[in-house]
């Protein structure tokens, strides 16, 4: 049985003695305390006598008619209630950590994500929960929140402007990204320090259905706005990967929110000044949050909070 030690090293009160003491202190009746602990009155009496002897404390005033706490007993009771409460909390916390360490976590990852920082987040999480299984899966741009609601994802990354607030989902801002025009290094605009939408007149911007709806949701330039300034939007590809190939070939440009220092092989990025930066958020379901989900989000917050430049994402689309 677990016990405490006096500073001299001899054994003192046990947890069971404390449970008996608290029960008697709250019931002020040895029979009621015994019933509460599913034991007998003599067993309770024995534990209280042993506790008083081992601690040297006179805890109760006892007569044939009533039981009451002494002043020392009252002080001891208040402290022991707090201590046992801390003990239960410590046990619950340890159990949660053990359960989380054996758990399964599914994280959605957007295309052209900041893989370096994400890898460091994942590494720290796995260090904290070495036995947890983490699956990283593609995040769907067409229905970004549905994967969370359906349970396909435990955690996802979103732009603040691509969704409406949902009381069932918790969103935590991480950083912001500005819009850039992606183009071939040989483009006549590749040497510009910054661009306005009107500067794209006569250029071709590749589009796809999923990407266009996503870009519009992020309050980026719509196809109508591009057409109004004379941009050719006739080039279409079913995926953003296809768009990257066209950009690298020099047959089209694209517009995405991304990090100014991002490096995409064979592509130059030029800031687009007409649209405000968008905030990137990490999100999870709000109800019954799991410890491992909360821990992953906290690690992500810490990683981005320590970056001198908040725009630490290569691209999130």
TrEMBL record:
Keywords: DNA-binding, Transcription, Transcription regulation. It comes from the Bacteria. The keyword Repeat does not apply. It holds the Pfam family HTH_1. GO terms for cellular component: protein-DNA complex. Residues 13-70 form the HTH lysR-type domain. InterPro entries: LysR_HTH_N, LysR_subst-bd, WH-like_DNA-bd_sf, WH_DNA-bd_sf. The keyword Transcription applies. One of its GO terms (molecular function) is DNA-binding transcription factor activity. Belongs to the LysR transcriptional regulatory family. This is LysR substrate binding domain protein. The lineage of its organism: Bacteria, Bacillati, Bacillota, Clostridia, Eubacteriales.
